[in-house]
Amino acid sequence: MTTGEKLIEAAASLLDSGGESAVTLRAVGLAAGLSHNAPYKHFASRNALLAAVAAVSFEELAKAANAIRTSSRPPAQKMSEAIALFVDYSRQRPARYRLLFNNPETAAAGGELKARAMETFEEFRAIVQECQEAGVLPDAPSQALASLIFASAHGLLTMEANGQMHPEKGLSNVGASMELLLGLLSPGRTSGK
Amino acid sequence: MTTGEKLIEAAASLLDSGGESAVTLRAVGLAAGLSHNAPYKHFASRNALLAAVAAVSFEELAKAANAIRTSSRPPAQKMSEAIALFVDYSRQRPARYRLLFNNPETAAAGGELKARAMETFEEFRAIVQECQEAGVLPDAPSQALASLIFASAHGLLTMEANGQMHPEKGLSNVGASMELLLGLLSPGRTSGK
DNA sequence: CCCCTTAGGTTGACATCGTCAACTTAGCCT
DNA sequence: AGGCTAAGTTGACGATGTCAACCTAAGGGG
Question: Which residues of chain B neighbour A176 with C-beta distances below 8 Å?
């Protein structure tokens, strides 16, 4: 493992355990067994290091999503699993999730990072398309429908992470809300009221 | 205007003009014509000041949403206007929007802040309920459906702010995506495919 | 009327952080 | 052998959140 990778791993570990504010260049250098300024020999700035963490994280996510898409399970189940992938990620590594999907500075880093993000999204879009072809999701441009479904999950997860979800007032946790959405979107649904 | 309010206003102004990192306690004090440490006489910490900014911002939003809800326009139009309210807010004051809906530290401030946030959401929920009664939104617990619709808009706006939206690839801007959602949710829709 | 409390404000200091500059090596190319 | 460069170190600087000590004016009870 190169020193650069060691630094990225140390940063990711600090991010997961202590939140973004714990990712101090000094602490990262120390955790990698180097001096307080060593990260500058590999990354131009703190943001550049965080962008690198985001890039490898997107890569992991894309890989996991790809495994789901290329499995032999029915499309509807792939969709559930893909959603669960993001839900679990948000709950198990909230700071990392925020870095990936909720951080304008990271997003501004462009280039390779944006490519990895689009790679991840493309897997999700393909699953949506499979569902459309199987008739469990309505006809519409798959890109738009995938954006919509992903954004819904993303918005719900953000609200959950912010404590703006109120499960006591009836059904409004993330999982149930997504089932509601998919149910309402289902072409087979009988027109209500 | 009390000194505390002056500080909140100064902080809000700095937030809107220079992003969250521009909201420095020193700068806020200076902007209010006071010394670098004056904010501590009114707020326990930087986060407490930001929470106060969030509280008054939620109040403004709730007021605007209330004006929409109590207007005499048809429910479907109220819904469009309510969505536009959040869309415009996100685009015109992105840093403030992030503070309100994308900031776990702010959300952790609990108490009055959470009450204001719920007040705002309640206006939105009531509009959703009107739409359901008018038959333009499907039958479902209004709380859950409102969460879902709001989360969709929120997720789309977050992606837009992060540059993770790709309008070049077909329909995927926020407005069009929300229209797609509302269209697909519409009880009158003919079952696709 | 005087003293004492206290809210609001000030100055100064401290630790931490991102970042920059200068110096030192160890390895590699010629 | 000589020197270039990547990788690493130390030391410093300015900005920032926060704490502590001091000041001061308003007001209320004796």
Answer: 144
- Picking from B77, B52, B82, the residue whose alpha carbon sits closest to that of residue B67 is B82
Nucleotides of D under 7 A from a protein CB: 6-12, 15-20
Q: Do the Cβ atoms of A22 and A54 come closer than 8 Å?
A: no
Q: What is the pLDDT of residues A91-122, one digit of tens each?
A: 999 999 999 999 988 877 777 898 899 999 99
Residue with tokens 């939003």, as numbered in its chain: B61
Position A69: which residue type? Answer: R
Residue ranges in chain B whose pLDDT is less than 50: 171, 191-193
Do the beta carbons of residue A149 and residue A129 sit within 8 Å? no
Encode burial over A59-87: b for 16+ CB neighbours within 10 A, e otherwise: eebbebbeebbeeeeebbebbbbbbebbb
Residue A68: name the closest of A152, A125, A118 by CA: A125
Exposure pattern of A142-171 as b/e (b: 16+ CB <10 Å)?
Answer: bbbbbbbbbbbbbbbbbbbbbebbeeeeeb
Nearest nucleic acid nucleotide to A41, CA to C1' distance: D7
Amino acid code (one letter) for A115: A
Distance CA B86, CA B82 (A): 7
Asked if the Cβ of residue B35 lies within 7 A of any atom of strand C, the reply is yes
Greatest alpha-carbon pair distance for chain B in Å reads: 67
Closest residue of chain B to A179, computed from CA coordinates: B148
| Confidence check: pLDDT of A193 > 80 | no
pLDDT tens-place string over residues A57-78: 999 999 999 999 999 999 999 9
Inform me whether the C-beta atom of residue B147 falls under 8 Å from chain A C-beta atoms: yes
Mutate to test the interface with A, among B162, B168, B171, B180 (most CBs of A within 10 A): B162
CB A82 within 8 A of CB A65: yes
pLDDT at A106: 81
Kindly list the structural domains of chain A, giving each domain's residue range(s) and its CATH number in brackets, ordered by start.
1-43 (1.10.10), 54-185 (1.10.357.10)
